[in-house]
Amino acid sequence: MVTLKGNTIHLRALEPEDLEFVYVIENDESIWEISNTQVPYSRFLIRQYLENAHQDIYEAKQLRLVVCLNDTTSAIGLIDLFDFDPKNNRAGIGILIQNIENRSKGIGTEALALLIDYSFKQLQLHQLYANIGIENEHSLQLFSKFGFEKIGIKKDWNKVNGIYHDELIFQLINNQ
C-alpha cells in the first residue's frame, strides 16, 4: 500500500514493530468504551493480528493504518476502516490519537481527511459512517467538520461504569 501523506502526518500500514503500540492501545481501559472492548488482549494475539495485517481490505473487511508525524515512522495513533462492505460501497471509520499532548493539534483532522479521500477516490466508496458516543465532543466536532451528518441515536447503547449512554451514528455520502 502506498503511504498516504499530508502536510504534517502520514498514514502507513501496520508493521511488526507496532506490536507494543497496538498492545498498549488495545489494553487501555480508558478507551474500551470507544473501541467496544471488554477483555484485555495478549501480545500473542496482537502478534497474530499483525501477521495477518497484510490482507487487503477485500479479504479482511477492515483496514487499520498507523498515524505518524512526517519526520518519523513512530506511531502516534490509529485510523480504521471497518465493516467494509464492497457490495454496498460503504465502511465504518474510526480514529484514535493515543496521547493527549498530540490531540487538538490538527493531527486527527489531517488523518481523517487523508482516509476520506482514499476511501472515496481509491476504494470508490459511496458512504462512510461513524459511531460516536454522545459525550465524545472532540469526535463529534471532528466528524461534523467533514460534513458527516447525524442520522440516528442508538439509545442506551453502551454501558460504561454501570450507566447506559447513547451513541450517535454519523454518515458521509460521496455525491461525486
UniProtKB/TrEMBL annotation:
User: Could you tell me which residue ranges the N-acetyltransferase domain spans?
Assistant: 9-173
Q: Name the InterPro entries on file.
A: Acyl_CoA_acyltransferase (IPR016181), GNAT_dom (IPR000182)
- Gene3D superfamilies according to UniProt: 3.40.630.30
Q: Name one Pfam family in it.
A: Acetyltransf_3
PANTHER family noted in UniProt:
GNAT-FAMILY ACETYLTRANSFERASE (PTHR43415:SF3), SPERMIDINE N(1)-ACETYLTRANSFERASE (PTHR43415)
Any idea what this protein is called? Answer: GNAT family N-acetyltransferase
**Source species of the chain:** Flavobacterium sediminilitoris
